[in-house]
Amino acid sequence: MNFETRLNTLKQRKTFRQLNTVEHVSKKHITINEKTYINFTSNDYLGLAQLPINTNQLGNYFVDYGINYASSRLVSGNASLYQDVERLFCSHYPFEDCIITNSGYDANLAIFNIFKDQKIMVFSDARNHASIIDGIKLSGLSKQIYPHLDYDTLDEQLSHYPNSTKLIVTDSIFSTHGTMADLQRLTTLKKQHPNTHLMVDHAHGLGLGLYDTLEDIDILTASLSKALGTQGGIILCSNTVKQLLVNLARPIIYSSALPIFNLYQIERNLHYLHSQSYRATKLIQLSKHFNNLAEFKWGSHSRRTLSPIKYIEFEDFKAAETIYERLLTQNILASYFRYPTVEQPMLRISLSYFHNETDIQLLLNAMP
Ligand SMILES: Cc1ncc(COP(=O)(O)O)c(C=O)c1O
Predict the structure, then answer these.
(1) CA distances (Å), 240 to each of 99, 114, 217, 243, 355, in order?
(2) Pocket (CB within 6 angstroms of ligand 1)
(3) Are 284 and 209 in contact (CB under 8 A)?
(4) Which atom of ligand 1 is nearest to the CA of 231?
(5) Does residue 62 have a pLDDT over 80?
(6) Where is the Aminotransferase class I/classII large domain (predicted)?
(7) SS3 39
(8) Does residue 245 share a domain with residue 356?
(9) Which atom of ligand 1 is least distant from the CA of 43?
(10) N or C: which end of the chain has fewer CB within 10 A?
(11) Is residue 302's pLDDT more than 80?
């Protein structure tokens, strides 16, 4: 393989990507190459990643627990803080048990390991996150893809496998378009079709209060690096599933545990997530405001949701790049997504607790 040729192919296809060096992030502002923008790219939806550090409190954690155990959880890295934090999660969410992983990506790779070599058919939404797609593949599971949010087709697909064990897998809030799964409909389908389990990836939903209930879901995975503003992942499940994970999940068995600082931050931010619900309330207000302005500008759209993720799709790269560049000249940073992340070039906009209505107006004014 010629590395240069491979790179050139990516450039010709307009799918070449580069790492930007971020110099600073402060509330809604981000500084890249000495230029400061209003940041519409962060998943720190509630601003919890920017909570100030209480150095005394953190120092006490280091004195009590040490800094880093440099071992996987199964060997000698299972700090007692893990147990405290996992208990805390179970007190907030309707699951018997849970296990923290090193990332949301790992959580989705880990969970499918428990189904490996079992007779199971996975039913996966066409727009599920890459970590779900990779997890299914790595565990060698058979799958049926249903069109995005098309639960009539899913219903029909499920009915073709009456005697098999079935697993429905969906994101709750879809990471690129901000569309939302109908969890009520999915729990109903699960009950209608015998031997069916439901797994939800709640990476972009955790802490935002956009669903009334998470009852009747068998397995809930999430990233802790979105609204919670930390690093890590979690699998909420039964105690039996947790034990299976400890025995079978390769990302948990074969990777070192998180350092103490990380566990401290998860515990602290979880506390703020639940004690400062005004953050999520403000975000929902901003999302409504965006939707009202978007409806006025572009007309109604059935898939516009209250999630903080918004998007605008383009026919081709050139149109998307033009608007992306125009936003940059107006000191606005959005995410430019293209294949293979999405099928059609698009700008993804994520709203955060730090934005205000004027920021949203500025953004929409700069759009076509
Ligand atoms: C839906 C979804 N699941 C999982 C992940 C992976 O989470 P993490 O970034 O913690 O690895 C992401 C990250 O973008 C995501 O959007």
Answers:
(1) 12, 11, 15, 5, 42
(2) 103-105, 108, 129, 131, 171, 175, 201, 203-204, 223, 225, 233
(3) yes
(4) 10
(5) yes
(6) 36-362
(7) strand
(8) no
(9) 14
(10) N
(11) no
If you take atom 14 of ligand 1, which residue's CA is the nearest one? 175
Q: What's the pLDDT at 14?
A: 83
Number of the ligand 1 atom closest to the C-alpha atom of 224: 10
Please indicate, yes or no, whether residues 19 and 140 belong to a single structural domain of this protein. Answer: no
* Same domain, yes or no: 103 and 240: yes
Ligand 1, atom 10, lies closest to the CA of 104
Residue nearest (by alpha carbon) to ligand 1 atom 16 = 175
Q: pTM surpassing 0.90? A: yes
Using the atom order of ligand 1, give the atom closest to the CA of residue 108: 4
d(CA 35, CA 237): 45
Residue nearest to atom 8 of ligand 1 (CA): 104
Ligand 1 geometric centre to CA of 207 (Å)? 15
Mean pLDDT, residues 108-137: 97
Averaged over 271-288, what is the pLDDT?
97
Are 198 and 182 in contact by the 8 Å Cβ rule? The answer is no
Euclidean distance between CA atoms 160 and 262, whole angstroms: 45
Identify whether 62 is part of a domain: no
Rounded CA gap, 59 and 67, in Å? Answer: 10
In terms of residue numbers, what domain contains 94? 69-258
Residue 302 lies inside a defined structural domain of this protein: yes
Tokens of 226: 């979105």
